[in-house]
Amino acid sequence: MKKIIIPILFFILSATAGKAQTILPQQYQDLVKKLVASFPKNATVINNNSGTTSSTTLIDFAKSMLGIPYRYATSNPKVGFDCSGFVSYVFSNFGFKVPRSSREFSGTGKETTLENAKVGDVLIFTGTNSRVRTIGHVGIIYSIDENGIKFIHASSGKAHSVTITELNGHYKDRFLKAVSIL
């Protein structure tokens, strides 16, 4: 009896595994359809750098990570982010290839003035010591209004997480330049 059951179980498991492999692509396709349907109606989605993406979509995605802890040299939302890991993760989600290191942002995108900067542009700052004028921090412009500019970034400071900060005092002194990626 055992000799008959073992081949039957093997056959059933083999047949089931084959069906699971053919179902998976359809489930993946359904998941993609649901994700696309969840984007705001006015949003445009990037397709392998050949299309465009709106700053609203980019910021909404970045905002979904508020509170994720700061973690040096990390770009994984399950573990945490450092500043450039966060910026890189957000842009790469939309098909943009941007540096993983904050220092490498000096040659990325198109440089713009702070007055001409737009939501979704990347702000580049010095490290914590504003007197040392080398790149040490990056963030993404979150909003611009009559009260000034706010940016979203992974902060190693008081918030010690992904947070939204005003571009004032401390960060204004550390500001080096803004670059457009979108």
From TrEMBL:
Domain of life of the native organism: Bacteria
Signal peptide interval: 1-20
GO biological process: proteolysis
GO terms, molecular function: cysteine-type peptidase activity
Listed Pfam families: NLPC_P60
Gene3D superfamilies linked to this entry: endopeptidase domain like (from Nostoc punctiforme)
Domain NlpC/P60: 52-182
Protein keywords: Hydrolase, Protease, Signal, Thiol protease
InterPro entries per record: NLP_P60_dom, Papain-like_cys_pep_sf, Peptidase_C40
Family: Belongs to the peptidase C40 family.
Name this protein carries in UniProt: NlpC/P60 family protein
Species of provenance: Pedobacter frigidisoli
